[in-house]
Amino acid sequence: MEPVDVAFALVGVGALLAGILPRMLERRPLSMPIAFLGLGMLVFLLPIGLPSPDPLAHRELTTHLTEIGVIVALMGAGLKIDRPLSWRRWSSTWRLLAITMPLCIAAVALLGWWWAGLVPAAALLLGAALAPTDPVLAADVQVGEPTDAEDSEDEVRFALTSEAGLNDGLAFPFVYAAIAIAGTSLAPAQWFADWFAIDVLWKIAAGVGGGLLVGWLLGKLFFRAPSDLRLARHAEGFLALAATFLAYGLVEVIGGYGFLAVFVAARAIRAAERTHEFHSVLHDFAEQIERLLTVMLLLLFGGAVIGGLLAPLTWRAAAVGLALVFVLRPLFGWLSLRGAPGRPAEHWVISAFGIRGVGSFYYLAYATTATDFPQAELLWATVGLVVVVSVVVHGVAATPVMQLLDRAGERTSDPSEREGARGEPALGGARG
């Protein structure tokens, strides 16, 4: 039995299940990520000759596989948000990005250093890698496909989708800070100015500006070009991949944050012709590719867990990871959302469902490939534990919690709606 033949069969089974399971699990307290994580663990337990998918032994491959998974998910997330960008309408997002994420990074880094015994560079990398809400594994708590209604999205799914779309790029400066600490013997005063100017200001500005430019140009090509060249007329979904890789590649070439550029480009494409049905075509294709990539990554992750990924874990490091999932993210999220759109029940759900996943693996793989980090095995074990816990806990809780909020009618789509409701139930109902 050749391992490559087994791999082909496994990919085929995974792709088939990816088409079946979402419909079977739609109303049940079980998610597709749980199923494929378990399947990966089961398959790699069997004596069929599959090599161990150890991310530490294949760091560059891990980096690129997770990279592709994240950028495709970011394009899908940007296309399916109906709510136009504004400071007031996106206030929950800004709070989660500006308050919750930095507090989580700082708290995990401090606990990792003080409690788990990590060196400063490793502790900061752990905080940065675990900070973003994942755009890949959070489908059960995100908005649905694009619609024509700007205010159809409830605050919970909107906040989690928009946060996942933006925070992957904004966590990168802290990853670069960890790389700078690990890779040089310089004091912080000697590298901080360059880090702030380049890794914070320039790379974020290039990501946003490059994404806007690419999205604007593609929007013109899709919806405003002469009839023969107007690509929206042909309804070809694979153009979602063209937009994804074009935005990501061009912005990375000029030294910006490609993750940020992909999401911004998707929002610019959506703004070019907000109600056109071509957005649904693009979104559906991106979602299908994302689902296939998610299946593959989860199968490999399950195999890595069986292969001993969690073996270096210490109980102190495990405590730090569990504290993030069950204490730090919910607490900081709830505090940051005080006064934001939505009601207290919604704020608690948004805060509790900061799902960790593929993005965390990408940052860890990228950083440990860029330079040698001490205690890298412990970092991988800790992140692996957090993702396993997040997949299981959030996957089980997502469906019943969202159904409960739907039935309770405690869903808010926009601050102005609350002001004009006069005691009537807020807009809720179906996803997206």
Average residue-wise pLDDT: 88
**Number of helical segments with 4 or more residues:** 16
Round the Cα radius of gyration to an integer and report it. 21 Å
CATH topology: Na+/H+ antiporter like fold
Structural commentary:
- With 432 residues, this protein is mostly helical.
- Helix content is 69%, strand content 0%.
- It is built from 16 helices and no strands.
Name a few traits of the molecule.
432 residues; Na+/H+ antiporter like fold; mainly alpha
What's the helix and strand layout?
Elements: H1 3-24, H2 32-45, H3 59-80, H4 91-114, H5 120-130, H6 155-170, H7 172-183, H8 188-223, H9 239-253, H10 258-272, H11 278-306, H12 315-336, H13 344-352, H14 358-370, H15 376-408, H16 415-421
Helix pairs in contact: 1-11, 2-11, 2-15, 3-6, 3-9, 3-10, 3-11, 3-14, 4-5, 4-6, 4-12, 5-7, 5-14, 5-15, 6-10, 6-13, 7-8, 7-14, 8-9, 8-10, 9-10, 12-13, 12-15, 14-15
